[in-house]
Amino acid sequence: MQIRIKNLLKQSPVGSCVQVAGWIRTRRDTGGFSFLEVNDGSCLANIQVIAQGSLANYETEIKRLSAGCSVRVEGMLQTSPAKGQDVEILASGLTVVGWADPEHYPLQKKRHSFEFLREISHLRPRTNALGAVARVRSRLSYAIHTFFQERGFSQVHTPIITTSDCEGAGEMFQLTAMAAGDGPRGAEAREFFGRRAGLTVSGQLQAEVYAMALGDVYTFGPTFRAENSNTSRHLAEFWMIEPEMAFCDLARNMRVAEELLTYLLDDVMTHCAEDMDLFDRFIEKGLLTRLRGVMENEFARITYTEAVDRLLQAKKTFQYPVQWGIDLQSEHERYLTEEVFGRPLIVTDYPAAIKPFYMRVNDDVRTVAAMDILVPGIGEIIGGSQREERLEVLTARMEAAGINCEDYGWYLDLRRYGTVPHAGFGLGFERLIQFVSGMANIREVIPFPRTPGFAPC
RNA sequence: UCCUCGGUAGCUCAGUAGGUAGAGCAGGUGGCUGUUAACCACCUUGUCGGCGGUUCGAGCCCGUCCCGGGGAGCCA
Q1: C1' nearest to CA of A106: which nucleotide?
Q2: Has the ipTM of the complex gone over 0.85?
Q3: pLDDT computed for residue A89 by the predictor
Q4: Across residues A232-238, what is the average pLDDT?
Q5: Rounded to the nearest 5°, which phi and psi values hold at A231?
Q6: Å from A438 (CA) to B60 (C1')?
């Protein structure tokens, strides 16, 4: 019976015959037999295999095994007499499924830099850290769906190709089916969609459509930004979670966001304990303590105006001077969440002038019902707002922003016909994984990162 | 895109006032009856990021481009 190593270690059926299949991590020879570390990706841990010299292919094959070779092993599970592992497989047979020429296989049984591993993105999930990231990413994805589904949210598959720019969300990748040389002049009429199209920068506007029919919805899909951003927190292609809730104000919006984050932390710490422990030991010392602190303390909440006051009172000089009306800079956000509060912080009610047209204007007229969640180490992880549901107010803001209302007729119809207060937010999936894993560079938490000048496969 | 620091063996790095390159690990061969970053002995490895310039001579100096780290802007 073939069994995955994760289940084998959990059930630990000592004395029974088992079969595993995986990749060799290392081989150690001692006299007439060998120790093999086999990993099958089901968990961080390897299973130690004892291959005795009496095996038929010991000299011809087993002694040639090296890192990266794939094998199938069968044998008896026994308690290990040595320290380092509780159980091991005493092999009765071993089949080499695929060789990995050790002269050329780039992964060695020592630590590699993440920069180097990025150059071999097709092999890096075979390392401990990147394998752990992949499992944690998968678990978080599952938990996100569980969280929303259990609360009655419907998932909406918003379009990846779009003809409407979500104003203010960054540069859109242009998309065309025309061959080079078909010429730009008068080409719009011959475009595949009959008009300019691009890759979505956000599913929010389309999610609002379904929120106005199904009530509570969420999107979870890829988004694209053609920004020339070269930082450890930006990607040209990333995944975003965007819930959108009808009959919902900013207060409930914040509650859902906070509940989501603490739910996800609890889930991943329960179900990926071994991988999280790896991050705690080798990626960010004190990670687990930090995350428990986030789960046990309520998020701090202040308004933008209070935040500005705090910054003005700070005994600290900022590179960017503070005054009411400015957008908060990284240094300001870091100071507030890391030094003043030392825990996640929700900042609300930003000046209308620095926020997009769809955010609901407050009674004071000069601020909007926006909220950003800032977390230590990452900065902004969630951005959201109550949406403007009043047609006249919305059109006035669109005109002020220089947006052609005719292009957004479908969006304005949501306010013309049965409009309701509604709210939502966006959570960057990769930033969430960074926050949870302690990984410093966002390029390590997505399987195939896309950044300016980098998209190898 | 801006500031800053880097790019030398498969990996991580060292390198002399400009004179033709080196250590650890990995890899190869042999040894070792319980190893676990195994150990011991011996051996192999380079267009010194690309292009151009200065010079009798450039890994080292100058110019430029590419890539990466840290920080910033934009944002998720």
Answers
A1: B10
A2: yes
A3: 96
A4: 94
A5: -140, 175
A6: 39
Cα–Cα distances in Å, from A350 out to A214, A298, A306, A334, A346? 29, 21, 11, 17, 11
Q: Determine the residue type at A419.
A: T
CATH 3.30.930.10 intervals, chain A: 124-158+204-445
**What is the three-class DSSP state of A48?**
strand
Distance A107 CA to B73 C1' (A): 37
Within 7 Å of a protein beta carbon, the nucleotides of strand B are 1-2, 10-13, 25-28, 31-39, 66-76
Residue A31, number of CB atoms within 10 A of its CB: 6
Confidence band (pLDDT; 50, 70, 90) for A186?
A: low
What are residue A376's phi and psi, to 5 degrees?
-55, 135
Fold entry, domain A124-158+204-445: BirA Bifunctional Protein; domain 2 (3.30.930)
pLDDT tens digits, one per residue of A126-164: 999 999 999 999 999 999 999 999 999 999 999 999 987
* Inter-residue contact A386 to A369 (CB < 8 Å): yes
Angle, alpha carbons A59-A63-A68 (nearest 5°): 140
Residue nearest to nucleotide B69 (CA to C1'): A115
| Other beta carbons less than 10 A from residue A68's beta carbon | 20
Query: What confidence tier does A289 reach under pLDDT thresholds 50, 70, 90?
Result: very high
Minimum-distance nucleotide, CA of A239 to C1': B76
Residues of chain A with CATH 2.40.50.140: 5-98
In whole angstroms, give the CA distance from residue A90 to residue A171.
Answer: 58
Quick one: CA dihedral A394, A400, A402, A406, positive or negative?
A: positive
- Give the nucleotide with minimal C1' distance to the Cα of A229: B74
**Beta pairing class for A345-348 and A197-199:** unpaired
- Write down the pLDDT at residue A306: 96
Please state, in angstroms and rounded to a whole number, the distance separating the CA atoms of residues A162 and A235.
19
| CB A250, CB A423: distance < 8 Å | yes
Distance A31 CA to B30 C1' (A): 13
Domain A5-98: give its CATH code. Answer: 2.40.50.140
Could you tell me the distance in Å between the CA of residue A431 and the C1' of nucleotide B67? Answer: 24
List the A50 CA – B27 C1' distance (angstroms). 24
Pairing of strands A70-79, A237-246: unpaired
Q: Are A299 and A375 in contact (CB under 8 A)?
A: no
Query: Which pLDDT tens digit goes with each residue over A37-63?
Result: 999 999 999 999 999 999 999 989 999
